[in-house]
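Sequence only, no structure available. Ideas?
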Amino acid sequence: MEIKSFFCKNRCNGWALSSAVIVLMAALPCLVVFYYFFSPSTEVWEHIRTYLLKEYILTSAGLAAGVFFLSTLIAVPLAWIVAMYDFPGKKFMSFGLALPLAIPPYIGAYTYSGIFGYTGFIQSFIRNYTSVNPNPDFFDIMNLKGAIIIFALFLYPYTYMIVSSFLHKQSAQFIEAGKLLGKNSWGLFFRLFLPLSKTAVIGGATLVVLEVLSDYGVVSYFGLPVFSTAIFKAWISFTDTQSALRLSAFLLAGAMVAGGGAVFLKGRGGLSPSSAKIRPVQPTRLTGLKKFGVMFFSYGIFFLGILLPVGQMAVWSIQSRHNISYKNLGHMFFNSIWLALVSSIIILVLALIVANYHRLFKNIFSKIYSSIIILGYSIPGTVIAVTMLVLFLNLDRMAGIGLANTIFMVIAGYIARYIAISFQALERGFEKTGNRFTESARLLGSGYLGSLIKVDIPMIKGALISAFVLTFMDIAKELPIVLFLRPFNFYTLSTKVFEYAHDEMIPESSAASLLIILISSAPMLLLYYLEKRKEKA
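Reply:
I predicted one. Tokens follow.
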């Protein structure tokens, strides 16, 4: 009786109930996978388990590990260079090196496969202007090694931005202390910077791995035997939902291992950001070979990650302009914008409810809700797609509500996948403001909802903007959820790019690809502008 009374007194309110429903929506993919994992196996699953499962595990693990190390190898030196050295173009490069994140890896894969293909620029140039007959196999990037390079090239900004932000919060005293101990640039990098930034590096690299595990566009185009492609092969080719969900369980477990491993490693060593008054690091002006080396590395990554793919897409879009229906392109652009807008607004509102409950009611339930919400981002998009379809088809069969293969199903998938992004941004905003203003409003007779609208929301306006922008950017680029859950004959820019690529019409996909990059880069520019304005304030 006391337990029931305690529960009702502390948790039976509108915020708790609303948060519970929202968290349940975010947890649905995991619940569906867990339920079907223990169902009786089928002949298809026995075949997969006997002959294919080992290959899926090894290829997926190899891909994730390769991207983890290569993206870190690119991102960490870049963050160090931008923070520690002064060189021509540094101010632009500090932001420009994050721009490859605006290009989804699947678009990068399509573009580079075209560049290195038989009719691409490189092989055509060699054939036409030299006496060498290039070996097509030498330029083939549609394999595991090529996929690792593509992912690393377009996902390294996750690690780069997190490590750069971490460095900017450190005081120059750390660097000066290292120099007093006789450390040169290499010594400072390996003996001071790497241990100091361990937490940030692991956090960024883990995000990269989760994006790799969630990908479908690159691995399906390259024909890699990984879990993402295996799930849809079992689901669509073999029409075996149970096998698809069992494979989803393995992929989900891999994502959980990646996330859990990151938490474990971050807890063992690594230093926290400086809490003392920060004296910014004064960059060292480089000359001679050091200056050339730094510029070559940073400008080279910027060229490969932005200039070359965007330039090639621009050329292709001009060459294929007569083969494109700009009216249809406009419809797809509109579909992408409104779907991302509506989904982001819904996700923002839902995340605000849970974040506010977590802030106001510090209890075991709020902590559990927070953990489940954050866990949602580790669920790959392919898993969400298959579980949402199974769930909505069963709901239609039982209740006849007719929500399967509707936009509502797509938005539900987005909620499960991306609510963690908005929630974490809002949680950071609430941590900065605290509860004292809410408590004052409560003393003046305002309710929780009234104080949230009139007091808290204006104070976390920056966090709200960041949450919305980050969610919008991810949804605008997203492929597997919208590809497999959309209504019949509903196209977004990403689904059309996928269709063009698999029809071997890479040049025709360029116009839509450039629009996706434009939509994705605009929010990044907005966040960069807001961050700079906050620094000046």
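Strands lie at 85-86, 284-285.
Hope that gets you unstuck.
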